[in-house]
C-alpha cells in the first residue's frame, strides 16, 4: 500500500515502474521489513517467524546479508510461505525425510537475493536445511524453485566477518574440491576411460578443471586473508573460488546421480592404494615423508584452525554418537582425535 505522496508510473508492460514522491530511506521504512539474524543451525521457530512476517507484509523479495543460517533460513521460509506451512506440524510435512509427494509441494513465489559474508556457499545450491528443536535434527528441504535468483559478491562486507568463520567456511569449500578430485575423477591405472560415454567423460573433465581452478583461487585467498584480513582482492578471489567449487558443469545433485555409480565401481576395482600413489606422484610427494592428508592438515594449521576433534571440545566419550550422526565409520572419527 502506498504512502501519502508516493506515486508509481508504469513505463512499459509489464515493467518497469518509475517511482517518485518520498526520500528513498523514508519509503524503505514503510515498504521493507527487516529481521536481524537467524540463530545457528536455522531453528524451525525462527523460520516460521520469518515466514509469518513475509506473509503479513505480502513480500515478493527476500534480501539476505550474512552467512549460511540466513541463506538457508530464507530458502525454507520461502517454501513455507508457498505451502502455507506456518506451524511446526505443517513444516514437518515438507522436509525430505517426510517424503512429500512432488505434486503436493508448491513452488516458491518469493525471489531471493543473497549477499554472502562467508564462504559457506549455500547460496549456489537450491536445497536448504533447518533444525527441528523437538528432535534436535537438522532436516533438508528441497524443491527446484528454491534458491537464489541473484548473488552479490562484495568483499568489503566480509571484512567484519570473524576470522574463524571466514577461514573455516573457506575450508569447507576446499573440502568440497578435494573430495571431488580424490573420489570421482581418477581414470583407470592404464589410462583407459572404461565404459563411460563421451558425455560423461566430458563432464568429468569439465568438473575436474573447475574444481582445480577453485582450489587455485581458494588456497592463496585464504592464506593471504589469514595474515592480511583487509586485502580485498584476496577476499574476492576466495569468494570466486566458492563459485567455481559449487558450479561446475551441472548441479551438484545431478553430478551425484551421474557420477556416484562410477565412483563405487572404481573404488571396488582399484581400492585406496593406487589413489594414494597417484596423489603422491602428482604432488611431488615422497612416500616415506608425507601423505595427502598431511598436506591438508598443514594447510589447516597455517590458517590457525583446529586440526583435531579434541581441539573443538569433542572427547572419546562422544565418538559413538558423533560417528552415528555424521554417518562416518568410527575408525575415521578416531583418526581425527
UniProtKB/TrEMBL annotation:
Residues 34-155 form the Alcohol dehydrogenase iron-type/glycerol dehydrogenase GldA domain. Pfam families: Fe-ADH. GO terms for molecular function: alcohol dehydrogenase (NAD+) activity; metal ion binding. GO terms for cellular component: mitochondrion. It comes from the Eukaryota. InterPro entries: ADH_Fe/GldA, Alcohol_dehydrogenase_Fe. Gene3D superfamilies: 3.40.50.1970, Dehydroquinate synthase-like - alpha domain. Keywords: Oxidoreductase. This is Alcohol dehydrogenase iron-type/glycerol dehydrogenase GldA domain-containing protein.
Amino acid at each position: 500500500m502506498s504512502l501519502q505522496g508516493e506515486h508509481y508510473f508504469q513505463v512499459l508492460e509489464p515493467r518497469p515502474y518509475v517511482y517518485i514522491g518520498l526520500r528513498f530511506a523514508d519509503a524503505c521504512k514503510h515498504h521493507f521489513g527487516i529481521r536481524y539474524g537467524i540463530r545457528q543451525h536455522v531453528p524451525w521457530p525462527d523460520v516460521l517467524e520469518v515466514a509469518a512476517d513475509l506473509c503479513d507484509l505480502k513480500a515478493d523479495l527476500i534480501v539476505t546479508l550474512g552467512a549460511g543460517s540466513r541463506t538457508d533460513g530464507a530458502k525454507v521460509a520461502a517454501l513455507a510461505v508457498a505451502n502455507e506451512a506456518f506451524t511446526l506440524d505443517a513444516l514437518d510435512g515438507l522436509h525430505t525425510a517426510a517424503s512429500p509427494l512432488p505434486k503436493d509441494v508448491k513452488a516458491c513465489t518469493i525471489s531471493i537475493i543473497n549477499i554472502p559474508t562467508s564462504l559457506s556457499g549455500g547460496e549456489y545450491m537450491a536445497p536448504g536445511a533447518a533444525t527441528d528443536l523437538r528432535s534436535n535434527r537438522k532436516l533438508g528441504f528441497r524443491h527446484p524453485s528454491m534458491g537464489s535468483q541473484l548473488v552479490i559478491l562484495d568483499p568489503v562486507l566480509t571484512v567484519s566477518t570473524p576470522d574463524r568463520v571466514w577461514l573455516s567456511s573457506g575450508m569447507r569449500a576446499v573440502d568440497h574440491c578435494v573430495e571431488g578430485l580424490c573420489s570421482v575423477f581418477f581414470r583407470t591405472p592404464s589410462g583407459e576411460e572404461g565404459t563411460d560415454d563421451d558425455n560423461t567423460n566430458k563432464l568429468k573433465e569439465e568438473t575436474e578443471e573447475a574444481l582445480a581452478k577453485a582450489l587455485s583461487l581458494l588456497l592463496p585467498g585464504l592464506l593471504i586473508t589469514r595474515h592480511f584480513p583487509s586485502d580485498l582482492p584476496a577476499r574476492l578471489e576466495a569468494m570466486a573460488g566458492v563459485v567455481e567449487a559449487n558450479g561446475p558443469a551441472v548441479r551438484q545433485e545431478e553430478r551425484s546421480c551421474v557420477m556416484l555409480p562410477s565412483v563405487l565401481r572404481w573404488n571396488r576395482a582399484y581400492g585406496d592404494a593406487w589413489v594414494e600413489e597417484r596423489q603422491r606422484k602428482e604432488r611431488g610427494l615422497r612416500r616415506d615423508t608425507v601423505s595427502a592428508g598431511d598436506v591438508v592438515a598443514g594447510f589447516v594449521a597455517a590458517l590457525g584452525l583446529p586440526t583435531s576433534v579434541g581441539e573443538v571440545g569433542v572427547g572419546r566419550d562422544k565418538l559413538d554418537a558423533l560417528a552415528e550422526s555424521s554417518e562416518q565409520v568410527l575408525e575415521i572419527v578416531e583418526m581425527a582425535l
